[in-house]
Write a structure and sequence with these properties.
Elements lengths: L3 H7 L1 E7 L3 H13 L5 E5 L14 E2 L4 H11 L1 H21 L2 H4 L6 E5 L6 H16 L4 E3 L3 H6 L8 E5 L3 E2 L2 H14 L3 E4 L3 E7 L2 E6 L3 E10 L15 E10 L10 E4 L4 E6 L3 E6 L5 H4 L8 H15 L7 E11 L6 E4 L4 E5 L5 H16 L1
Parallel strand pairs: 1-2, 1-11, 2-8, 4-13, 11-18
Antiparallel strand pairs: 3-7, 4-6, 5-6, 9-10, 10-11, 12-15, 12-16, 13-14, 14-15, 17-18
Protein name: FAD dependent oxidoreductase
């Protein structure tokens, strides 16, 4: 039961965005930058963004050597290069909108730990550098001196090689989303939390959005930006959710490395946070079927595997305790590309960031905004 005042003041908009993560907020930012007088509403089902935007590892990356080589096998050279360029441009666009200081962005570089050196691997790295040169105008991947492995404290029997990429960085995911919220709210965008969208009805002159089974909002155009949860609205898209499980250690007595690290085609990732703490996530490839879910919970199989890799590979000579664990939901497509399209006359979809939301979220959002302007 809405009052006359509520219907007049809170239910009618030019644009409604479903999802308050990085993409949803960035769509709102693009809309109000282009149309400052437009009325924009973001609907979020959770208290915080529900997918991965505030649950990720805070990497500003575009792909590791083994990951990009796997992408070439899956989708070809041209598609891989298009993805990398989109990610790189997206990072620059994000940094242009939100200052490095506000989101604690540091272009500290990143390393991939190579656990098994395949045949002609160094030639494959050179091949990647040649492919990527037109985008970055210089060499991207550098094989680090072997003593760097010992310097970082990794297990030298397991870590066979380190490959450095100076173009990647890290940021504080919570501060990034907070800064984006502040940015759009200062421009008049409204954000309502606890709003579970149940249904859309697309009429010729606009869209009715039913929330919590009882309240209807109206907008001329709607953008759906709920990534791995898009299946609750549209089941025909080739989008599979992918759960990412993460842990953080308690402060360690000493931490020999700082920066971003990946291994196993990017399925595992870790970095330093806080005061000598390690944030470590991944392992989805241990159980693809089980991790193809939107259920936000940890599982012993994955968490125990992460703990074992901390013990054996990352900090083999240190005692440690786990401070906290959590999970986030990503979304993946077979061709590694996001889905950006109008699904009805007045509703656009922008989902499936394939685990690269920080990198491509801003450019994906710009494309969605262009579809509904």
């Amino acid at each position: 039961m809405l009052s006359y005042w509520e219907k007049e003041s809170f239910t009618k908009y030019d644009y409604i965005i479903v999802g308050s993560g990085l993409v949803g907020l960035s769509v709102a930012a693009s809309l109000v930058e282009k149309k400052p007088k437009s009325k924009v509403l973001i609907l979020e089902k959770g208290i915080f963004p529900s997918g991965a935007s505030t649950k990720n590892a805070g990497f500003a990356c575009f792909g590791k050597p083994t990951e990009l080589l796997a992408d070439i096998q899956a989708v070809g050279e041209k598609a891989m290069l298009e993805l990398v360029e989109k990610r790189w441009k997206g990072l620059q666009a994000l940094r242009k909108r939100i200052s490095d200081k506000k989101m604690e962005y540091k272009q500290a570089g990143s390393y991939e730990i190579i656990l098994e050196i395949s045949e002609n691997f160094e030639q494959k790295v050179d091949y990647l550098n040649k492919l990527l040169h037109p985008i970055f105008q210089e060499k991207v991947f550098h094989i680090s001196p072997q003593e760097q492995i010992q310097k970082f404290g990794f297990n030298e029997k397991l870590a066979k090689m380190l490959i450095y990429n100076g173009f990647e960085g890290q940021l504080h995911s919570g501060k990034l989303i907070s800064a984006l919220m502040e940015y759009v709210q200062k421009k008049g965008v409204k954000i309502l939390n606890g709003c579970n969208v149940n249904q859309f009805r697309d009429f010729e002159n606009g869209v009715e959005v039913l929330v919590n089974q009882e309240i209807s909002f109206f907008a001329k155009k709607v953008a759906i930006c709920n990534n791995g949860f898009v299946g609750q609205f549209f089941s025909h898209y080739p989008v599979k959710p992918g759960r990412g499980q993460v842990l953080v250690t308690k402060p360690l007595k000493k931490l020999l490395f700082k920066g971003n690290f990946h291994f196993d085609e990017g399925f595992y990732y870790f970095r330093n946070v806080g005061k000598n703490q390690i944030l470590f996530g991944g392992g989805r490839n241990l159980d693809f079927e089980g991790e193809t879910t939107t259920e936000l919970k940890n599982t012993p199989k994955i968490i125990n595997n992460l703990i074992e890799k901390l013990k054996t590979l990352i900090i083999p000579n240190q005692e440690f305790e786990i401070e906290q664990t959590w999970a986030g939901i990503m979304a993946f497509t077979p061709n590694r590309k996001p889905i950006i399209e109008c699904c009805t006359q007045n509703i656009a979809v922008g989902v499936a960031l394939n685990g690269m939301g920080v990198a491509i979220g801003t450019t994906v959002a710009e494309e969605i905004a262009q579809l509904i302007l």
